[in-house]
Amino acid sequence: MSGSVPSDVWLSIPVLALLGLCVGSFLNVVIHRLPLMLERQWWQDVAHQLADLESWRRVFGSKAKPAAELQRSSEALSGAITALPRLGLAKPASRCPACGHQIKWHENIPLLSWLRLKGRCSACGARISARYPLVELLTAALFAGVAWRFGPQPATLLWCGVVAVLVALAGIDWDTTVLPDLLTLPLLWAGLIASALGWVALPLPAALWGAVAGYLSLWSVYWLFKLTTGKEGMGFGDFKLMGALGAWLGWQMIVPILLGASIIGAVVGIAMKMNQSLREGRYVPFGPFLAGAGIAVLLLGEPRVLGWLGW
After folding, report:
1. Which of 79, 74, 29 lies closest to 51 in space, CA to CA?
2. Do 252 and 302 meet the contact criterion of CB atoms below 8 Å apart?
3. 135: closest CA among 34, 33, 23, 285?
4. What are phi and psi of 127, to 5 degrees?
5. CA 273 to CA 271: how far, in whole Å?
6. Quick one: pLDDT at residue 280?
7. Closest-CA residue to 213 (of 241, 242, 248, 184)
8. pLDDT digit string (tens) for 27-67?
């Protein structure tokens, strides 16, 4: 259509940066609510397991009977979960955690509302974490970087989606040390599908072997560490995230991503140890650094990254 806006405008750096602000606002919700939604489901699974008499007999013997306390715990858990208010990514509306004030639309404009409210709730004056606008700004900057890297083409939106998922995974893992399968596995499969359909320049064999090499690289480290020390050095979510990065970026990028994530993770871990800010157990989740290294490799491009390594 002659009057339509050209794609180089819709997919320009300023427009995608603005889109990134809005997506970043949604990512704040995902980072906060998705772990809670998963925890509810896990407790529901516990309640179902406690009530499963057949499973009890298979594990503890055909004549064993579950203790009455377990049955009562199952009923109590089911009742408590049922009584909880509905929780999803879209509903209920956002509220102030301090006073319960429902956030109005004009108080929820990305970045601008936080600045106008001076980082405080309009009802009770409680402080609103600066992380909310920082996630919005980070997502906006990354979307702008993707627009600069790939230019005005449909694949640019696809890469923006990849970046958004990586930001959400980094935030969730930092808060909870969990990388949800709800995000890592679709990200992995989407990378393989995008390559198979020709939506990205990466050939399908490179994407497939990237997924394999990414997963097995950390899987091997995990088992080597566990067999040597008897301890678990990382979670299975790290394997899946690394597999997803390999599916999108190819097997050639596995080593640069691991090197970058390891170096930055070590620096941050040492700084937190010196600052005595390590969490209980004295560890730092690896997922945020994998996600960050993956985004860096994506924005820098394969030729530049491999050139720096002398390959």
Report:
1. 74
2. yes
3. 23
4. -70, 135
5. 5
6. 66
7. 242
8. 999 999 999 999 999 999 999 988 888 888 888 887 767 77
Tokens standing for 32? 């906060």
**Which pLDDT tens digit goes with each residue over 169-212?**
999 999 999 999 999 999 999 999 999 999 999 999 999 999 99
Which residues is 102 bridged to in the sheet? Answer: 95
Please give the average per-residue pLDDT across 231-252, as a whole number: 93
pTM, entire model: 0.92
For residue 160, give the nearest of 115, 190, 181, 130 by alpha carbon: 190
